[in-house]
Amino acid sequence: MKKVLIGIVVLFSFLLLTTLYSQKLTIEFWHAMGGGHGEALKQIVESFNSLNPDIEVKAVYVGNYSALLQKLLASAQGGTLPVLSQSYSNWTSKLLKGGYIEDLTPYINDPLIGFSKEEWEDIFEPFRKMVTWDDKVYALPFNKSTYLMFINTDALDLEGLEIPKTMDELIEVAKILTQDFDGDGTVDQYGLGIRPTVDTFQIFLRANGGKIYDEKTGEVTVNSPEAKEALQLMVDLVHKYKAAYMQGGYLSGPFGDGKVAIYFGSTAGMPYVESACKGKHAWTWAPIPKWKTYAPPFAGTDVVMFSTAKLEEKKAAWKFMKFLVSQDITTFWAIKTGYMPVRKSALETKAWKSFVKNSPLLAVPVEQIPYGSIDPKPAQWNEIRGAVSTAVSNALHQKMTVEEALEWAEKEIKRILSEE
């Protein structure tokens, strides 16, 4: 009889474990985080899964951001969206039009599973603005970065130069650092590296008090005097002063090799810069030089939940989203990747203070948060960015004058906006 009872207990335990295991809810999270960033995300997901044995978040690396956007748009049409994904604000706007994005406002305001007023306001205000459309929240901030000036300090020290704090100072420093070391008539080190892209253009443009598009008025402002002056300076640095090296790809490689002494890049590039410069030269980063104003652009994505998910999947997804922006996790993410923490309280953690003490550079981007500028959110912003990149490239490669390039961009943006 005792053996029978033991057998029944064992069988019941097995059935219970089998039932519990079968009840584990799996949700997919699509992302574009490769390399070291992907490894850090993997650790975060594994930590969440271990703390929540009834939920399995499956992080799916889709590729780069372009691949992720195309897969999301195709999946929206085909009815195969995941539960969660990274998303730029303009992607969210585009998907909102089809009703694919879940409104997170009810989750945030829920007294049991939401945020208190203090917790919500603990998220930096610019990041809250980036996930808010009118009075509704459709995302939570994730991998946020800002643009800084990467500097070869060995090159600077060799010439006895200070880090430039204004745009005029940057021009002069770039001229001095542009050198032909062996006298063969070929420049060995350029003072500045420039990418002919919309992102680099926006650094100069916003510092000059301009913008591409005014979201409040709906006015296309890419052909303004401020924009012309900003793009002309980029062209002059390359062709008139001959103090800037230009290439379309990322500049961490040429920077590490000593081809360029200074360049503008995202804080997310920190691991790549460290690797490129290791054993070659020392480096630091500093704020974008001030021009007429100080408005360094923010970059990075948010995390969205799709309305097509089942109710139980949405509950699990919300739990994971809150986990991503929790104090400890956003601190861990920032330390591991170079992205900024999204919560103010992260700066008060023991881990952050210890890290900044050993790596003071990490304090610099956080100090820029109150001054940072964000992209507008029209659904067509991705197409607008493409048009401006084409115009900037044409001007920098001297296929068009600055005036011709920006006039073309203005017409193209107006066409894009009128077609949606």
Please give a structural write-up.
The protein is α/β, with parallel strands linked by helices and 420 residues long. The chain has 2 domains: 2-145 and 299-370, Periplasmic binding protein-like II (D-Maltodextrin-Binding Protein, domain 2); 147-298 and 374-419, Periplasmic binding protein-like II (D-Maltodextrin-Binding Protein, domain 2, 3-Layer(aba) Sandwich), CATH 3.40.190. Helices cover 49% and strands 15% of the residues. It has helices at 2-22, 35-51, 65-78, 89-96, 105-109, 117-122, 125-130, 153-158, 167-177, 198-207, 225-240, 252-256, 270-277, 311-324, 327-337, 350-358, 363-367, 381-396, 402-419; strands spanning 25-31, 55-61, 84-87, 132-133, 136-137, 140-152, 192-194, 213-214, 219-220, 244-246, 262-266, 283-286, 298-305. Strands 1, 2, 3, 6, 11, 12 and 13 form a 7-stranded mixed beta sheet that branches. The protein has a two-stranded antiparallel ribbon with strand order 4-5. The protein has a two-stranded parallel ribbon with strand order 7-10. The chain is globular.
List keywords for this structure.
alpha/beta; 19 helices; D-Maltodextrin-Binding Protein, domain 2; globular; 420 residues; 2 domains; 49% helix; two-stranded antiparallel sheet; seven-stranded mixed beta sheet; disordered N terminus; single chain
Given this structure, which CATH class of the largest domain is correct?
A: Alpha Beta
Strand-pairing-aware structural class: alpha/beta
Number of strands: 13
What is the C-alpha radius of gyration, as a whole number of Å? Answer: 24 Å
Sum up the overall morphology in one term: globular
Distance between the termini: 76 Å
Q: CATH homologous superfamily of the largest domain, by name?
A: Periplasmic binding protein-like II
Segments where pLDDT lies below 50 for 5+ residues?
1-21
Q: What CATH architecture label of the largest domain applies?
A: 3-Layer(aba) Sandwich
Number of domains: 2
**CATH topology annotation of the largest domain:** D-Maltodextrin-Binding Protein, domain 2
What portion of residues is helical?
A: 40-55%
Largest sheet: 7 strands, mixed
- Number of alpha- plus pi-helical segments: 19
Strand-residue proportion: 5-15%
Q: What's the quaternary structure here?
A: single chain
Mean pLDDT: 92
